[in-house]
Design goal:
The chain is α+β, with helices and mostly antiparallel strands and 612 residues long. The chain is 40% helix and 20% strand. The chain folds into three domains: 7-228, Heat Shock Protein 90 (2-Layer Sandwich), CATH 3.30.565.10; 244-420, no CATH class; 445-563, no CATH class. It has 22 helices and 17 strands.
C-alpha cells in the first residue's frame, strides 16, 4: 500500500516552512528554552576557514543554543523531534509561548540539514541524545525519530568556557545550507535587533539573559565576539535598550517616548468571549517626547541615529504571552516618516490563537493583520452599519475577525488622535526652530514670512483687509488674549504657545491642523490682527494632498518613497482643480456663474502676486 503522505516530499516542503530568516528560526529554539524555565540562553556560532578559489574565508559551520532549563526525559525528547508533536498540544497546557509541536524540527531543517539534541536533568555528563538528518529522511534511511541514548556532548562545546548547570539542553545545527548570512558575526548582528524585540518582556526585567558568542573552530577558548542581547522596545518606554547609548550620546532622556494618555491610562483592556471562556486582550500606546523630535542640526530628527532606530520599529507589535510574533506594518502609513514616532502593542493569550489567526511558525497573526489592511470606519459607513452590526454579520459567517473588530476600530481611532498630536508637535517644533533662527541670514524664507511681506506691500498700496483694523488698533496684549481664547475654543494643541509665537514673530498668517465638521477643506478666520487658516485633517483632500508633503522628510528616504509621495500630491492638486471646475460648471447661467468666474480670476491674480 502507498503512504498517504510521502515522507521525503513532506520534509522538502517543511524546509520551506516560511521562516523570515535565521533569527526567526533561532527564536523557536529560544521559545523552547524559556518554556522549560531557562534563566540563561547562549546563542553560539562556530566558524571555520575554508578555501574558495584563491581565497581563504570564514564560513558558519554550526549554530547552537545552550540553556539551563529543566531538560527533557527520553519521552519528551522524542516528542520534541517529531513534527506536530510535543507537550503543549492540549489546550490546558497552552498557557505560555509554546504550542504547536513544530518549533524544534521545523525551524532546524529550515536552516540546516542536521540537528543534534543533547539534554540532561542530572548533570551534562548524563546527557541523553537524539537527532534528525534531512538527507537520511529523504533517502529513507531515517523513518522515525531515533530512540534517545546516553551520549556526552561534543568535545568542542566543552572547550568554549560555557557554564553548564545541573539541568539543561544543547541544540546544534550543522550542515547549514539555508542561512542567508555566511559568518557568525553577521548572523549575530542581524539577529540582535529581532531577538531583542521578540523577547524584550523577558530580557528587560531580567527573567532571561540571552548571550551571543562567536568562536573560530581552530581557537575555541576565546570568542571573537560576545554580547548580551539588549531589549529592543518598539514602544520606547523601556530604559537600557538597544537605543540607549544613542540617546546618551545625543543628550536625550531614556526612554524617549511617553505613555499615550499618561502612565496607567495608556493600556486598554478588552474581554473576548470565545470557546465558552472570557479571555483578556490588552492594547498599549506610546508617543515620542518632544525632545526626541528636536534637532540641533539642519537634519530632521527622523534622519538622526535615534530617529533611524525608530524608523526600523514602525508598526503594531503583536505579543502572544509576552513574546512578539510580528511587528505588523499594515497599520502604518508607509509613505509617512512620522509613523516612527508612535508605538502600539497588542497582547493576547495563546487561547486566542485561532481568533487572531496565529500561524504555526508563530510569525504572524493573520486575522488581526487583515483588519489592518482595511479602513474599518469607512467600511462600516459604506455598508450603512454600526460596528456592532458588522461584528454580528462576520460572526454569523463564522468569521472570527468579528471578535476583533471593536479592538481594531479602537486602535484605528487612537492612531488617528496620536497622528494628529504628532503633526501638531511637529508644527510646534518647526515654529520654535523658526523663532530661534529669527534675525539670522537664511537662504530660504518661510512661506508665512513671504506672505506677510507681500501683505505689508499691499497695505502700503491702500488695499487693506479686516485683519488690518485689529492689527492697528489693538495692543499686543489684547491680540494675545484674543488668539489664546480662539485657540482654546478650537482645542488647538499648545494653543497658548502658538499664540505667543505669532505675536512675537509678527507673522500675519498661521496654518493650523484641526478637525471640524462640515465639507470645507479649510476655513479662514481673523483673530487678533492675524489671518488663521485651519486645514480640516478629516477632509479627503488633506490626506491626498497635504499629508504626503509634510515637512518632516527623511533625508535617507528611498527614491520610490519620494516618487510615491509626489504622485499622490500631484493627484491631489489635480482633483482639487477638477472639483473647482465642476463646481463652476454646475452654476446656473447668469449672475452666480459670473461671480464664481470672477472669484477665480481675482484669486488667480492674488496667487500670482504671492508666488512671484
Amino acid at each position: 500500500m502507498s503512504s498517504i503522505v510521502p515522507v521525503n516530499l513532506v520534509v522538502k516542503a517543511l524546509r520551506d516552512s516560511g521562516y523570515k530568516n535565521t533569527a526567526y528560526a533561532i527564536a523557536e529554539l529560544i521559545d523552547n528554552s524559556i518554556q522549560h524555565s531557562s534563566k540563561n540562553v547562549d546563542f553560539i556560532c562556530l566558524e571555520e576557514d575554508i578555501q574558495i578559489g584563491t581565497r581563504v574565508v570564514s564560513r558558519i559551520a554550526s549554530i547552537a543554543i545552550l540553556d539551563d532549563g529543566s531538560g527533557m526525559d527520553n519521552n519528551t525528547l522524542e516528542k520534541a523531534l517529531q513534527f506536530g508533536n510535543g507537550t503543549n498540544l492540549d489546550k490546558s497546557n497552552q498557557k505560555s509561548i509554546g504550542k504547536f509541536g513544530m518549533g524544534l524540527p521545523s525551524s532546524s531543517i529550515s536552516q540546516s540539514k542536521r540537528v543534534d539534541v543533547y539534554t540532561w536533568t542530572n548533570g551534562k555528563e548524563n546527557s541523553i541524545y537524539s537527532y534528525l538528518d534531512v538527507d537520511d529522511i529523504i533517502n529513507g534511511k531515517l523513518t522515525e525519530v531515533p530512540k534517545p541514548t546516553l551520549k556526552v556532548i561534543p568535545d568542542e562545546f566543552n572547550k568554549l568556557g560555557l557554564k553548564y548547570k545541573k539541568t539543561g539542553t544543547l541544540v546544534v545545527w550543522s550542515n547549514i545550507d539555508r542561512c542567508l548570512w555566511k559568518t557568525g558575526k553577521t548572523i549575530i548582528e542581524h539577529s540582535e535587533s529581532i531577538i531583542g524585540r521578540m523577547y524584550r518582556k523577558f530580557i528587560s526585567p531580567g527573567l532571561v539573559v540571552i548571550t551571543a558568542r562567536v568562536f573560530k573552530k581552530n581557537a575555541l577558548t576565546t570568542p571573537i565576539l560576545q554580547k548580551n542581547f539588549l531589549p529592543n522596545d518598539p514602544m520606547y518606554l523601556m530604559a537600557n535598550t538597544t537605543v540607549s547609548k544613542i540617546l546618551k550620546d545625543s543628550d536625550i532622556a531614556d526612554p524617549m517616548f511617553d505613555y499615550w494618555g499618561g502612565k496607567g491610562n495608556h493600556e486598554r483592556e478588552y474581554k473576548i468571549f470565545f470557546d465558552n471562556q472570557v479571555h483578556l486582550v490588552y492594547v498599549r500606546y506610546s508617543v515620542a517626547k518632544e525632545e526626541a523630535r528636536k534637532s540641533k542640526s539642519t537634519t530632521n530628527a527622523g534622519s538622526l541615529k535615534h530617529g533611524t532606530h525608530a524608523g526600523e520599529n514602525i508598526g503594531v507589535s503583536i505579543l502572544r504571552s509576552g513574546r512578539e510574533l510580528d511587528l505588523d506594518t499594515t497599520w502604518a502609513n508607509n509613505y509617512d516618516t512620522r509613523e516612527r514616532w508612535w508605538g502600539v502593542e497588542i497582547e493576547f493569550p495563546p487561547s486566542l490563537d485561532e481568533v487572531f489567526g496565529v500561524t504555526n511558525n508563530k510569525q504572524y497573526a493573520n486575522n488581526f493583520r487583515e483588519l489592518g489592511k482595511i479602513d474599518i470606519t469607512n467600511t462600516v459607513k459604506e455598508l450603512g452599519m454600526s460596528i456592532g452590526d458588522y461584528k454580528k454579520e462576520l460572526l454569523l459567517d463564522n468569521d472570527l475577525k468579528g471578535l476583533l473588530i471593536e479592538i481594531a476600530a479602537d486602535i484605528t481611532n487612537q492612531l488617528g488622535d496620536i497622528r494628529r498630536h504628532i503633526k501638531s508637535q511637529a508644527k510646534k517644533l518647526e515654529r520654535t526652530e523658526t523663532d530661534d533662527r529669527h534675525g539670522e541670514n537664511k537662504k530660504d524664507k518661510d512661506v508665512e514670512e513671504i506672505a506677510t511681506k507681500i501683505t505689508e506691500n499691499r497695505k502700503i498700496e491702500g488695499r487693506r483687509g479686516n485683519s488690518d483694523e485689529d492689527e492697528d488698533k489693538k495692543s499686543d496684549e489684547q491680540k494675545l488674549i484674543d488668539l489664546i481664547k480662539s485657540f482654546g475654543e478650537d482645542l488647538i494643541p499648545d494653543g497658548d504657545d502658538v499664540a505667543k509665537m505669532l505675536i512675537k514673530s509678527n507673522l500675519k498668517y498661521q496654518f493650523l491642523d484641526t478637525n471640524f465638521d462640515g465639507n470645507a477643506f479649510f476655513t479662514v478666520s481673523v483673530v487678533g490682527g492675524k489671518i488663521i487658516i485651519k486645514l480640516n485633517n478629516s477632509h479627503p483632500a488633506y490626506f491626498k494632498f497635504v499629508e504626503v508633503i509634510n515637512d518632516e522628510i527623511d533625508e535617507n528616504a528611498d527614491k520610490e518613497n519620494i516618487i510615491q509621495r509626489l504622485k499622490s500630491a500631484q493627484q491631489g492638486l489635480k482633483l482639487i482643480l477638477m472639483a473647482w471646475a465642476r463646481y463652476e460648471d454646475e452654476q446656473p447661467d447668469g449672475v452666480m456663474k459670473n461671480n464664481v468666474k470672477n472669484a477665480r480670476q481675482d484669486w488667480g491674480r492674488m496667487a500670482a502676486e504671492f508666488m512671484e
